[in-house]
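REQUEST ID: PR-0412
SUBMITTED BY: lab tech R.K.
PRIORITY: routine
TASK: structure prediction, single protein chain
INPUT:
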Amino acid sequence: MNFYTTILGSGAALPTTSRHCSAQVVNINGFRLLLDCGENTQTQIRVYHQKLQSISAIFITHLHGDHFFGLPGLISSMHLCGRTAPIHIYAPQGIEEALSLILQVSGSHIDFEVHYHELTHTEGSLAIFENNYCRIHAFPLVHSVPTYGYLIEEKPRGKNPARSYAYCSDTAYTETILPYIDHVNLLCLESTFNNAFTSVANEKLHCTAAQAATMALKAHAGSLLLTHISARYKEPEILLSEARAIFPNTVIASDGSQHGINYFH
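STATUS: complete
OUTPUT:
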């Protein structure tokens, strides 16, 4: 696999001993980026043998703690390990103020440049990153604070067609994002609840597994990866079965699992 994601945290707001808060390392032909950075991400990076200093860009979906509370520790550890290369952080507006304040009041000194790219658009898909390996677009999700999904598109190599990976967490069920994730190879969607908690999901602007599967079906996705699993599910097979009833090509994330972004057959 030369385009794949490694799950560092697959849980929802409350971490458990088996599911940490949201974080993934995506490897695109050797280029590594981090999606979300929940509490304890830096430890999970070590546990699952990822290369801390090889991460050059971080993409935060929103500023709820379970998606960015790991950033101060991660940045500090990068400094303590001798990092000199800059890091780029893409996140909703407010990330620079939040992180800068924490580093300031803690007396943390960082010897490398931190470049903040704050997202403010409220409609449509916006190109925010490009290098020799991939292009990345951000698009608004539907949640209680400004939240963005990210579409990562591999640049084609040789005769191979480009593959794509979309990461959407957290969000209520919405069809507004379908044009931005149409025919994505792998769609990673939050699935905090099962059908019995549909009203709770709607109230809290989260998704059920069935709602995630419905979006995957309507987006003509190649496969679906469920994540952001509520701590109430010790055995999350109920989420998987409810999703597969609608979209059979579904798997569920677990901490440490790796998922390749495969070509359509």
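NOTES: The chain is about 25% helix and 30% strand.
REVIEWED BY: pending
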